[in-house]
Amino acid sequence: MLDWLTDNWGDLAVSALLLAAVAAILINLIRKKRAGKCSCGCSSCDGECRR
To answer: Where are the domains of the chain?
Structure first.
């Protein structure tokens, strides 16, 4: 098991960083939605985005 970890530590580190980035993005989107902010980036939205 230790050999496998030492052989793949680089892949594990990159995977952990990607997972942390995705989690941070999702948390940010959820917080904005709960606060009633628009996620599309426009300043005049009142909580709902138009398409």
So the answer is: 1-51
Under 8 Å between Cβ of 29 and 39: yes
pLDDT in tens, 16-46: 999 999 999 999 999 988 888 776 666 666 6
pTM: 0.67
Number of alpha carbons in the 13 Å side-chain half-sphere of residue 30 = 6
Residue 29 to residue 26: CA distance in whole angstroms: 5
Q: How many other CB atoms are there within 10 angstroms of residue 38's CB atom?
A: 16
Q: How far apart are CA 49 and CA 34, in angstroms?
A: 15
